[in-house]
């Protein structure tokens, strides 16, 4: 029985042609022909590769001959594993004067200076995210219907399953005096809905989560209840990892710095910060983070989630009010719940709702007693990771002046990923970061490390050091992680040697001196840390920022021009593409994964999003090249036709035109 | 009169016509005749019922139309203000400052935090250039700075980079994480395990993953802060038993069962939550008794081994190895990879069902990035080393005994910690011989209610002067540091802990130190205690 593979978990899922398809495309009218076309394309790609013009070993060889300093860096070292997948090597081999120090599969080679952009809010315009479009009614209707159908099927299966195969339900019902750990009712959604598409989640991977990622293939013999590894691997284009600036690298200046740190420090600080776990490295990193975000002081915590969940209770307490955006991250809600403060929520990014709420709570005071609130803390995220929207900071700052609340901005996704200097959402809008009371962020995303920080004025941060839960109880951040943070931040900021009269300065964007002090003096860095030249002049960091900005804008606008419904701001590196039907999620993910050039995507559904707006989420990186974005657009175009996803309004361009006019498309001003 | 009726004529015809249309349309609906017949007959049988039903329908419509999130605007406490008044109130309101400056004692505490320059280890160098003997850092198993681990970490770095760049659900699960989970499960002998990326956040996520509103938790009064936070977030019914007192636990279990029978409450999930070796005082749980009780009363056991994993047992497997209790008897075994294996993160080991459940419901597992590959490998390698070298743990226990042999004889301090515990808490011995510490034989006053987490029978001040003792202990710490021994006061969030734990100095003994150094450090500490505490008397 278990030898029969479930059709669902097989590599090539059977995509059903949309029954609502009106305009049948002549090229691939049915799923069968689609699949044959895919395999043909696959064969073509392989034949192409064998000719030696694109993927294969020749470009690498010619490349290594052209590189003098670090030739072995660019050759892929995969210990005997061959990847003829069209992802490991650039499609067009570099010319002799181009020197790339990164591994193409980790950080793509892109020398075209046109594919650069600066992420910045245009002064004088009002920020508003792209209007959220509603899908046609039949999409909504079928979405609800499919949920209904799956729920009914689930209940029917439960009904018969419980009677016919009671052993399978044993852990869901009370037995010998123990209540079920997870009752059948509580787990219904996971058992009967999520399990159906479980092959799209928690996929094990290996290697660097950079531009590409290597998946460990698996299949399920029993309809996704268990997963069996097949032992093979697939390299896919990675548009899922939070690797915004492409610092997830196994080679390069940051990795070198981390290696010397491991050799010097080992891997642990052995204890909590207040109980003997503070190293000199912690202090250096905290000073650097404060400098980077433009605040007086900063505090580092060893886990991003814990930064919120353990620090917020030290900020507010009973008698205080937290006003929170309804889509704030779970860690914020966790922290607020622990704090004992009152919470009110406002509609996502709706500034009128926020102001109305503020007027109400300030005038009413605390519930029942009507005493004035001790303090009001507004918590918003800089970049909402499920929506791609930015906090409307200019308006919030105005409201802050009027209503005297304190502002907490969670920059988990925006730090490093937004703004001309990469300093997050405040930098993007050109707001002085010191006017924001608390800036929180994580190192997991843009910096390729782990953990998080809280920054603010010195009095506040010192108080959090002593009264936050992290200080006395949680383990301190480990030295190699701190080094990654220091190295990656320094390479964005640029390093001044102090001796050479910063002629390199020109490479770094004109810094607003008082807000973001320009180069880091070399004395602020650990003395043993190796510093690469590209890191010192800030050119590496700047290149990353500008490539990310281009990629984000290109894919976002490209998808809209293709007719997809996407949410969020044009400059956001997180791009949610709306799928609506729950079934399409799984099909979309599987089809992307089984293409000739596999693309790894994240699909998200209820409860992380509202029931009807299931979506696929692309996370872009500076590591992607323009060709990679083209690949994603081509894939989306094909699958989008097949799944009837192009429901957006507005002007549409044909795929070819989008790819050819990419630079123009990116440079176009925001439409109203 | 007639004029009015004639002017109303078209109105009446309209009404009757629309009534007619409604009626015909109504009868067009399939099954409508049945409803009509039912209404007619029920009205004939009992006209009062028709009225009641009409009222019911109106009520239902009203409920449906009401906004579901009933804001305070409609509450009876809502006061209506005009816009002008609101503006004035906004103008008038002065919030408290976001953060008060630290009090002088807090500031002094913060300034006194030792900063290690360069790597930490058994003998680190401080910022002032002084090399000290380290009895503060958690390095039980001497894995910190281990050359093999470093080498494996660099290899991993060159293959995986540093960060995992994503939560486990979204391509953050790397093969090294799966390997680590397997290693932990094999090491302990459970079906599976799950790795969280911070030790402190592990148990405060594990508890709410399983315990929901209405479930019952019976917890020790002396549990650590992370557990307290987990209990708080889970919102279930918590009953407390006296610290490390199995008799009290049994009484509470009995009482809960009696109450359930009396009130005929439905069967809910029930858990005992306690620690292996307590973070607050180093006391050790009687695991065989715990297991016996949990089986007898049909509870599940959540055991936090954050301190005991990697510090007791023949090869450091923790309490289960020490007491020779199969780890499968503990339903959720939580431990720290940061303390025990000098890596980073925490784990929860248990059955497949327990582990799988957390992969979807463990908040800090789901919503945070997976731990860096390098640290996972460091932990795996640590387990390998522990497995193959049992001498580490015997050295550790020898060192513990050596330190205890010296400190136990000092009469101005008392040590509530278990003799085998690698964390040793030193508290000031009070002049009154009644309560030596937090230890079980608490005040023989009225047995206090399991509803209250308070350890002291009187809810008022604890029987010791926190500030004075903290000051004295800090003096000892500084005195020891001056003599070249790094120790630390156990830092507590005073006012946030449910109970005020007795102020203590927490030693963490390491197998990395030669016995001679341990003895030397203990002697220094002894001298410091005598000097400072004698002065106080």
What would your notes on this structure say?
The complex is a heterodimer of chains A (672) and B (537). Chain A is an alpha/beta fold. In chain A, strand 8, helix 12 and strand 9 (438-442) form a beta-alpha-beta unit. Chain A is built from 21 helices and 16 strands. Chain A has helices at residues 31-50, 58-66, 71-74, 137-164, 188-194, 253-265, 280-293, 304-315, 330-339, 351-364, 393-403, 425-429, 458-467, 470-473, 479-493, 533-536, 539-562, 582-593, 626-643, 655-660, 662-667; strands at residues 205-206, 212-219, 228-238, 297-301, 321-325, 342-346, 376-381, 406-410, 438-442, 452-456, 495-496, 520-521, 574-580, 599-600, 602-604, 614-619. Chain A is globular. Chain A folds into 2 domains: 1-267 and 541-672, Aspartate Aminotransferase, domain 1; 269-477, Type I PLP-dependent aspartate aminotransferase-like (Major domain) (Aspartate Aminotransferase, domain 2). The longest helix of chain A is centred in the N-terminal third of the chain and has 28 residues, at 137-164. Chain A starts with 30 loop residues before the first helix and ends in a 5-residue tail after the last helix. In chain A, the strands form 4 sheets. In chain A, strands 4-10-9-8-7-5-6 form a 7-stranded mixed β-sheet, with helices on both faces. Chain A has a 4-stranded mixed β-sheet with strand order 1-2-3-14. A 3-stranded antiparallel β-sheet of chain A has the order 13-16-15. In chain A, 37% of the residues lie in helices and 12% in strands. With 537 residues, chain B is of the alpha/beta class. Chain B has 2 domains: 104-143 and 391-427 and 462-536, Aspartate Aminotransferase, domain 1 (Alpha-Beta Complex); 147-388, 3-Layer(aba) Sandwich (Aspartate Aminotransferase, domain 2), CATH 3.40.640.10. Chain B contains 20 helices and 15 strands. Chain B has helices at residues 2-28, 32-45, 47-65, 83-92, 104-111, 147-160, 168-172, 175-188, 199-210, 225-234, 246-263, 287-297, 319-322, 337-340, 352-361, 363-366, 373-388, 391-407, 466-482, 515-536, and strands at residues 116-117, 125-126, 133-134, 192-196, 216-220, 237-241, 270-275, 300-304, 332-336, 346-350, 413-414, 423-428, 485-486, 488-489, 505-508. In chain B, the strands form 4 sheets. Chain B has a 7-stranded mixed β-sheet with strand order 4-10-9-8-7-5-6, sandwiched between helices. In chain B, helix 10 (225-234) links the parallel strand 5 and strand 6. In chain B, helix 19 (466-482) crosses helix 20 (515-536). Residues 433-446 of chain B have low confidence and may be disordered. Chain A: GO terms for molecular function: pyridoxal phosphate binding; serine C-palmitoyltransferase activity. Chain A: It catalyses: L-serine + hexadecanoyl-CoA + H(+) = 3-oxosphinganine + CO2 + CoA.
């Amino acid at each position: 029985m278990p030898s029969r593979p479930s059709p669902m978990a097989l590599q090539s899922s059977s995509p059903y042609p949309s029954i609502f398809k009106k305009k049948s495309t002549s090229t691939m009218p049915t799923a069968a022909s689609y699949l044959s076309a895919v395999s043909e394309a696959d064969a073509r790609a392989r034949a192409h590769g064998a000719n030696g013009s694109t993927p294969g070993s020749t470009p690498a060889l010619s490349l290594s001959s052209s590189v003098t300093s670090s030739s072995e860096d660019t050759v892929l070292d995969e210990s005997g594993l061959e990847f003829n997948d069209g992802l490991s090597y650039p499609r067009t081999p570099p010319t002799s004067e181009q020197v790339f120090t990164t591994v193409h599969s980790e950080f793509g080679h892109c020398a075209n200076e046109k594919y650069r952009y600066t992420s910045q809010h245009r002064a004088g315009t009002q920020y508003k995210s792209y209007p959220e479009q509603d899908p046609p009614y039949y999409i909504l209707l079928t979405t609800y219907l499919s949920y209904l159908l799956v729920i009914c099927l689930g209940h029917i299966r439960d009904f018969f399953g419980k009677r016919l195969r009671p052993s399978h339900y044993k852990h869901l019902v009370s037995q010998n005096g123990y209540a079920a750990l997870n009752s059948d009712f509580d787990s219904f959604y996971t058992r009967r809905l999520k399990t159906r598409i479980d092959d799209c989640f928690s996929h094990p991977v290996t290697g660097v989560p950079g531009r590409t990622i290597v998946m460990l293939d698996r299949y399920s013999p029993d309809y996704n209840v268990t997963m069996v590894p097949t032992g093979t691997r697939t390299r896919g284009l990675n548009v899922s990892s939070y690797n915004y600036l492409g610092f997830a690298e196994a080679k390069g200046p940051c990795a070198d710095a981390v290696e010397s740190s491991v050799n010097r420090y080992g891997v642990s600080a052995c204890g909590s910060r207040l109980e003997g776990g503070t190293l000199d490295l912690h202090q250096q990193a905290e000073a650097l983070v404060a400098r980077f975000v433009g605040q007086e002081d900063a505090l580092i915590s060893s886990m991003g989630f814990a930064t919120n969940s353990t620090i917020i209770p030290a900020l507010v307490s009973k008698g205080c009010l937290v006003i929170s955006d309804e889509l704030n991250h779970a860690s914020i809600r966790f922290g607020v719940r622990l704090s004992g403060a009152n919470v009110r929520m406002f509609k996502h990014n709706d500034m009128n709702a926020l102001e109305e709420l503020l007027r109400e709570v300030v005038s009413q005071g605390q519930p029942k007693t009507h005493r004035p609130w001790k303090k009001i803390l507004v918590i918003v995220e800089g970049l909402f990771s499920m929506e791609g929207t930015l906090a409307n900071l200019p308006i919030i700052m105005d409201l802050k002046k009027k209503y005297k609340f304190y502002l907490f901005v969670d920059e988990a996704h925006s730090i490093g990923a937004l703004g001309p200097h990469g300093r997050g959402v405040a930098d993007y809008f050109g707001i002085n970061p010191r006017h924001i009371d608390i800036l929180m962020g994580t190192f997991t995303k843009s910096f390729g490390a782990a953990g998080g920080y809280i920054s603010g004025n010195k009095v506040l941060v010192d108080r959090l050091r002593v009264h936050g839960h992290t200080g006395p109880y949680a383990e301190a951040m480990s030295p190699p992680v701190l080094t990654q943070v220091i190295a990656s931040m320094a390479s964005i900021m640029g390093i001044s040697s102090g001796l050479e009269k910063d002629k390199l300065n020109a490479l770094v964007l004109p810094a607003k001196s008082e807000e973001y002090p320009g180069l880091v003096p070399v004395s602020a860095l650990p003395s043993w840390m190796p510093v690469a030249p590209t890191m010192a002049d800030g050119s590496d960091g700047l290149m990353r920022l500008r490539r990310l900005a281009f990629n984000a804008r290109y894919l976002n606008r490209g998808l809209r021009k293709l007719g997809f419904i996407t949410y969020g701001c044009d400059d956001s590196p997180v791009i949610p593409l709306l799928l609506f039907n729950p079934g399409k999620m799984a099909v979309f993910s599987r089809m992307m994964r089984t293409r000739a050039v596999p693309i790894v995507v994240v699909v998200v559904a209820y409860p992380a999003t509202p029931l009807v707006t299931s979506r696929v989420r692309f996370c872009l990186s500076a590591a992607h090249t323009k060709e990679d974005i083209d690949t994603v657009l081509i894939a989306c175009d094909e699958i989008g036709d097949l799944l009837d996803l192009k429901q957006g309004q507005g002007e549409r361009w044909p795929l070819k035109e989008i790819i050819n006019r990419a630079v123009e498309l990116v440079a176009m001003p925001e439409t109203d | 009169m007639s004029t009015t009726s004639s002017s109303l004529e078209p109105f009446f015809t309209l009404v009757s016509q629309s009534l007619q249309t409604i009626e015909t349309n109504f009868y067009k609906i399939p099954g409508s005749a049945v409803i009509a017949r039912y209404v007619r007959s029920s009205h004939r049988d009992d006209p009062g019922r028709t009225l009641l039903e009409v009222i019911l329908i109106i009520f239902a419509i009203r409920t449906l139309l009401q906004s579901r999130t009933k804001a305070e605007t409609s509450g009876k406490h809502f006061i209506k203000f005009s816009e002008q008044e609101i503006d004035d109130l906004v103008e008038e309101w002065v919030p408290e400052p976001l953060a008060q400056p630290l009090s002088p004692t807090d500031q002094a505490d913060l300034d006194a935090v030792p900063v290690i320059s360069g790597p930490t280890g058994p003998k680190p160098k401080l910022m002032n250039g002084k090399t000290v003997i380290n009895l503060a850092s958690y390095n039980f198993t001497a894995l910190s700075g281990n050359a093999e681990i470093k080498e494996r970490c660099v290899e991993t770095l060159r293959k995986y980079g540093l960060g995992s760049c994503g939560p486990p659900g979204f391509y953050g699960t790397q093969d090294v994480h799966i390997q680590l989970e397997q290693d932990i499960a094999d090491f302990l002998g459970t079906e599976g395990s799950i790795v969280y990326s911070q030790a402190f956040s592990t148990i405060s996520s594990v508890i709410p993953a399983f315990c929901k509103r209405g479930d019952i938790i019976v917890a020790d009064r002396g549990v650590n802060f992370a557990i307290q936070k987990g209990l708080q977030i889970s919102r279930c019914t918590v009953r407390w038993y006296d610290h490390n007192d199995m008799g009290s636990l049994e009484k509470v279990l009995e009482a809960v069962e009696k109450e359930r029978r009396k009130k005929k409450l439905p069967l809910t999930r029930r858990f005992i939550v306690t620690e292996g070796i307590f973070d607050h005082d180093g006391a050790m749980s009687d695991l065989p008794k715990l297991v016996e009780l949990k089986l007898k009363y049909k509870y599940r056991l959540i055991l936090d081994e954050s301190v005991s994993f990697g510090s007791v047992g023949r090869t450091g497997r923790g309490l289960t190895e020490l007491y020779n209790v199969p780890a499968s008897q503990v339903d959720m075994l939580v431990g720290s990879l940061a303390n025990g294996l000098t890596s980073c993160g925490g784990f929860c080991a248990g059955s497949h069902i327990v582990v799988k459940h957390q992969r979807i419901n463990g908040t800090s597992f789901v919503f945070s990035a997976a731990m860096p590959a390098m640290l996972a490998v460091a932990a795996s390698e640590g387990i390998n080393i522990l497995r193959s070298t049992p001498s580490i743990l015997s050295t550790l226990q020898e060192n513990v005994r050596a330190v205890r042999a010296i400190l136990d004889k000092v009469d101005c301090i008392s040590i509530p910690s278990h003799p085998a515990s690698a964390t040793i808490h030193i508290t000031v011995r009070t002049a009154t011989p009644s309560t030596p510490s937090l230890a079980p034989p608490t005040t023989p006053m009225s047995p206090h209610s399991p509803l209250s987490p308070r350890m002291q029978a009187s809810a008022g001040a604890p029987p010791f002067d926190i500030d004075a003792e903290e000051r004295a202990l800090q003096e000892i710490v500084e005195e020891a540091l001056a003599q070249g021994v790094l120790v630390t006061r156990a830092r507590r969030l005073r006012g946030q802990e449910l109970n005020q734990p007795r102020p203590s100095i927490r030693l963490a003994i390491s197998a990395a130190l030669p016995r001679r150094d341990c003895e030397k450090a203990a002697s220094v500490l002894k001298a410091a205690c005598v000097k400072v505490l004698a002065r106080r008397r």
